[in-house]
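The protein record quoted in full:
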Amino acid sequence: MNTLFETVKSAVSVPDAAAFYGINTDRSGKIRCLFHPDHNPSMKLYDDHFYCFGCHKCGDVITFTAQLFDLSPQKAAEKLAADFGILPPPEGSAGEEKPKTRIPEKDETLIQHIRLLSDYEILLRDWERVYAPTSPLIKNWNPLFVIAIHELPWIEYMNDCINSTDKHMQSWADHELISRDFYKRMETMLSMRQEVMLNGADGKHAA
């Protein structure tokens, strides 16, 4: 185990590193992704990791810093330690530390659900932007715009919950979406994206 890595990750959160290096988040804690051309902020910064809802890249504060400055993980950890004044752990102290509980990796089904939810959020954002009324005098709003403005706040919240490091919150969000049969709805909407967009453009109900 690389004790420098563990020390840095426990001492510096991803948002703290971003702020230190001059990167400001929007109100929802997102920035433009470091891994792909990103016109709208799609990378969410959590305390112990980041996740991009566009390209699905994720990682910890060391991965974030390595990508930001084009460094190796070792050099990124050393930079964080120097910039934040983190002292290396004393020699021989590793055996005295309390063992850290390893966070189990997300199972394949949950990973699929996370990707599905993020893809659906992107689709709703597209509908909200493309089908927004061009004038306040327009009364007959496009059905896809209506779906977007009604579902987007809830979907954003569920996305935050399911990407949380709080396992209870993550499990609750996944169960909530399953119990509402919402994953099937999202799959249907995404698989019929082109047809839905065409029908929506004609003002027909898409759902």
